[in-house]
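Budget justification aside, the reviewers requested a transparent look at the raw inputs and outputs of the sequence design task funded under Objective 1. We therefore reproduce one unedited record. The lines immediately below are the structure tokens for a 658-residue chain.
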């Protein structure tokens, strides 16, 4: 076994590898960019080495810098995590030349499966069923358009060297093909350094099922069952579970056997995933092989009781696989939810900022949180905005689903927009609860997933007020006591809170060791309320005869009220403040996030229709098109191609036409 390894990655996967290495008595070396100097993975490591500026192309993607860090630190092996250099055959070969073990498959296997087109050609020769499509090397746009017409719309354009939904577009109409192709190629080049694409038939209502495989240097290869990763948005996975609902033993064996044969065909060693598109009738097509550990590997660990990172380390050290195929078994059901800094109500735009408050649910053997950040850390625009992976296990799917709902209800994130409430709605949809799974589930459940925001319940306003008052309850000072005694009269306070256009006032009178709260000057006895904050920062409150648990987190004038399984944001109104909201500029378009302008589609003075693309921003390795909100004329362009823009920056000025 190794004595020291370098982890050539960041975030939760780097922390995950370090936890296993520490348990095995292996020292760890972290690498970091300027944006990650104080990151959690750096704090966890035994030593850390700077590898460059914030952009990944100047740090985490510089192979020689990683190798130099390994040489300087004396690391015997490099674990690449996932993303970055994890599927780069040149890096694997460079490690071998430098006498450093690459904790992953041989470069030949990465090369064989690294190109989606080449992998499909290999699988076709091996007799594995493939989705109809074009996987050739000729990238002439005209040829690709003709191939799309031959295949039949809708089609899917995919980056040949890609993954994670980047460089991928569904196209339903031939008129949209050229623009989608250009966007895919541009995004693929930026994310993977390779603009080649393939075109496939888009399978309607497909399921995305993948098989975890593992090979060693002694000729053994096993499959560790399947994961269903059908619930996606923008071709990126949102929820994963294992085993796949509705999977029969016969189909599991058939898919597992096909995955093992695919791995054997390329002499595979280490952890890998063979991904399939499955029809609702159970038939399946080979899609691709990921020659690395997957983001969703924890659900496999939860149902097998195994540590896949430990298996990676042991196999890379030359040891045989710890178990044979007949020794592997499924125990229960596991579900994983990816918690992201993003705004589902704004098309899942990434969010940046400091994590002012971060409180995950309590962890035990059935609830697990894998994360690379802690409270106080910053989500930057330079990398993937994942906050954590929340994984739960149950004896069966119903129990796992119940645990996921409770865990999401207990998750507290303040400081960045996030998808926790969205995930809570998602796992509660009839489609997911009933295991009616396909990659269009989120689109199909739009009405339930993106409802109009309801007005906050009375309890939310009262809890916010009670938390505001809680700082005085329990104090020994006579002027802070929760009763009617004051130097200048009765102990009463008025609080004003706002939610959108609604403002409400709460009158609080100290009474009987608690507070009597009246909402909007309501006549009558009001609500007798009291509460205290427990060790986890949760507010244990009494509202009349009802006892509830909530949390109220202050961030400047905002009060984030976590209650009833969702978060409501109220603003504390300063009665002495006479100012109003900032002037809204009707004739300008602003950047929804910090990013880089990579395309401008209009000229000053040009007339455009509603919905016409104006410019394209790139942020967090994804493209975001800014479109015309209505018919009008572009009067001023403030940025050009290549310019960096901050969040909220005025991009252009736009004059509406009648």
């Amino acid at each position: 076994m190794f004595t020291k390894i370098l982890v050539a990655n960041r975030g939760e996967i780097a922390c995950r590898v370090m936890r296993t290495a520490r348990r095995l008595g292996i020292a760890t070396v972290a690498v970091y960019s300027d944006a990650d100097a104080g990151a959690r993975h750096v704090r966890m490591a035994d030593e850390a080495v700077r590898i460059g500026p914030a952009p990944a192309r100047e740090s985490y993607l510089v192979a020689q810098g990683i190798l130099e860090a390994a040489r300087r630190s004396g690391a015997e092996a490099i674990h690449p995590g996932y993303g970055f250099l994890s599927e780069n055959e040149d890096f694997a070969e460079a490690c071998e030349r430098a006498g450093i073990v690459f904790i992953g498959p041989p470069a030949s296997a990465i090369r064989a499966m690294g190109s989606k087109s080449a992998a499909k050609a290999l699988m076709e020769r091996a007799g594995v069923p493939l989705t109809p499509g074009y996987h050739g090397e000729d990238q002439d746009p005209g040829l690709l358009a003709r191939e799309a017409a031959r295949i039949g719309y809708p089609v899917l354009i995919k980056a040949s060297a890609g993954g994670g939904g980047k460089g991928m577009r569904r196209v339903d109409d031939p008129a949209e093909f050229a623009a989608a192709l250009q966007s895919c190629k541009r995004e693929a080049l930026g994310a993977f350094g390779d603009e080649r694409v393939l075109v496939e038939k888009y399978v309607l209502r497909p399921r995305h099922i993948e098989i975890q495989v593992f090979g060693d240097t002694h000729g053994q290869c096993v499959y560790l069952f399947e994961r269903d990763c059908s619930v996606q948005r923008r071709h990126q996975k949102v929820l994963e579970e294992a085993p796949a609902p509705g999977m029969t033993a016969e189909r599991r064996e058939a898919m597992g056997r096909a995955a093992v044969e695919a791995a054997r065909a390329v002499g595979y060693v280490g952890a890998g995933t063979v991904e399939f598109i499955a029809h609702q009738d159970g038939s399946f097509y080979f899609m691709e092989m990921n020659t690395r550990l997957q983001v969703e590997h924890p659900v496999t660990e939860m149902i097998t009781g195994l540590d896949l990172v430990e298996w990676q380390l042991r196999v890379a050290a030359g040891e045989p696989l710890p178990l044979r195929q007949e020794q592997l078994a499924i125990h229960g059901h596991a579900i994983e939810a990816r918690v992201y800094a993003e705004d589902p109500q704004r098309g899942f735009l990434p969010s940046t900022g400091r994590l002012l408050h971060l409180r995950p649910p309590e962890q035990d053997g059935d609830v697990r949180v894998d994360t690379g950040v802690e409270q106080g850390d910053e989500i930057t625009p330079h990398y993937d905005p994942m906050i954590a992976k929340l994984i739960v296990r149950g004896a069966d799917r119903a129990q796992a689903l119940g645990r996921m709902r409770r865990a999401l209800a207990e998750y507290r994130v303040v400081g960045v927009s996030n998808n926790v409430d969205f995930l809570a709605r998602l796992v509660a949809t009839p489609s997911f609860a009933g295991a009616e799974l396909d990659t269009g589930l989120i689109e199909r459940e739009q009405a339930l997933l993106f409802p109009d925001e309801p007005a906050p319940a009375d309890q939310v306003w009262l809890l916010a007020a009670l938390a505001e008052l809680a700082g005085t309850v329990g104090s020994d000072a006579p002027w802070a006591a929760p009763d009617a005694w004051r130097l200048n009269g009765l102990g009463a306070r008025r609080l004003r809170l706002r939610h959108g256009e609604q403002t409400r006032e709460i009158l609080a009178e100290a009474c009987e060791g608690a507070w009597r709260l009246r909402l909007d000057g309501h006549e009558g006895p009001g609500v007798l309320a009291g509460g205290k904050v427990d060790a986890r920062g949760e507010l244990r409150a009494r509202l009349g005869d009802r006892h509830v648990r909530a949390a109220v987190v202050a961030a400047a004038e905002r009060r984030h009220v976590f209650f009833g399984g969702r978060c409501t944001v109220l603003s504390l109104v300063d009665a002495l403040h006479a100012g109003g909201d900032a002037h809204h500029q009707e004739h300008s378009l602003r950047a929804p996030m910090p990013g880089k302008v990579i395309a401008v589609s209009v000229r000053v003075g040009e007339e455009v229709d509603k919905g016409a693309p104006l410019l394209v921003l790139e942020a967090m390795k994804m493209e975001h098109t800014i479109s015309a909100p209505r018919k009008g004329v572009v009067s001023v362009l403030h940025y050009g191609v290549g310019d960096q823009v901050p969040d909220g920056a005025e991009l252009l000025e736009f004059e509406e036409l009648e």
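The two ends are 73 Å apart (CA to CA). The CA atoms of residues 117 and 135 lie 5 Å apart. Computational costs for records of this kind are itemized in the attached budget.
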